[in-house]
Amino acid sequence: MNIEDRLRTPAPDIDLAALAEREGLLDVAVAHMDSPIGDLLLAKTPLGLVRVSFSTSAEGDGVGHDETLEDLSARISPRIIEAPKLLDDVRRQLDEYFAGDRRHFELPIDWALVGEWGRKILDACARIPFGEVRTYGEMAAAAGSPKASRAAGTALGHNPVPVVVPCHRVLPAGKRSIGNYTGGVHIKEHLLRLEGVLAL
Amino acid sequence: MALPPFTTLVEEHRGAVWGYLCAMAGPASAPDLLQDTLLSALRAYPSLKDGSNLRSWLLSVAHSRVVDGARARARRPEVLGDVPERATTHAETDDELWQAVAALPDKQRHAVVLRFVGDLPYAEIGALCETSEAAARQNVRAGVMRLREELS
Questions:
Q1: Min CA distance, A173 vs chain B (Å)?
Q2: What's the CA gap between A170 and A173, in Å, rounded?
Q3: Which of A144, A137, A139 is nearest to A125 (CA)?
Q4: pTM above 0.80, yes or no
Q5: Using one digit for the tens of pLDDT, what is the confidence trace for A70-90?
Q6: What is the mean pLDDT of residues A30-47?
Q7: How many CB pairs under 8 A join A and B?
Q8: Quick check: B42 contacting A, CB < 8 Å?
Q9: Who among A8, A19, A25 is closest to B117 (CB)?
Q10: Residues of chain A contacting B113 with CB distance shorter than 8 Å
Q11: Model ipTM over 0.90
Q12: Do B142 and A32 touch, CB atoms closer than 8 A?
């Protein structure tokens, strides 16, 4: 064997996630998940699920996840580590939901990315049952400010944990359109169809 | 500008750090030092003020782990009896080769190890060794030639 080949020494595999967790240094665990609505980026802190992020491209191929990671780094911590195992329960519950086998999620949520008003709206949103819809006005009323339907829409648009907190179940009054959705209206349509709200 | 996720930092600079540790401490101690380096870096990462040259920061962390490791070894009393020096969890290393590597002049040793262990391009080796790309290429060539002589 020549010198060059004898020198090549592969770096050992280090389970950075396990190491960091053991030392209490895993501030944000992240994992990707392939889903019917594209590649999802999932992020979890020791307190719970903190972010579910869609690809921003129509192909759902993961474009936009870098911006999400940058945002998590700036707003929570740059100690972000790929740790698919730590997100097993989240992925399993999402898989079951997309397969039609789950109607609500049992996951602790970390609300670190949400302000006071957003929290009120998202709490109300989390109580909308599977397969039902509400209007932005109804959400505002449930949060104690019946006139704030526009602000309710903004808060729902900034939902850091879509699908799990079902902001897709909130529609404009009048039923002429299903309204906007951060990941794209096609995702909202997919979810409402999955829940039997929109006809196939 | 937010710091990149720690995961990304490690993916990008793992080769450079690993190569550096092998060059400084040899491949037998390098795995433990790599783990120490990553943990120290992870601990300090959020308080890092300047994220403009993350690789040299990571290498400076690696450097202090090597220095601390050498100090700790110097303090540790000799183990008596036939206790094996190191558990056999690490891959068997090519002692003859690495002794020859350790005997190379600093610049050659760094350049050779960064090239073949770290798998870095010459331009990056030059940057890390504070030489030009051409000098890095020359140091690698001279180092390999010297190793070949030593080991023939």
A1: 39
A2: 9
A3: A139
A4: yes
A5: 999 999 999 999 999 999 999
A6: 96
A7: 86
A8: yes
A9: A8
A10: 7
A11: no
A12: no
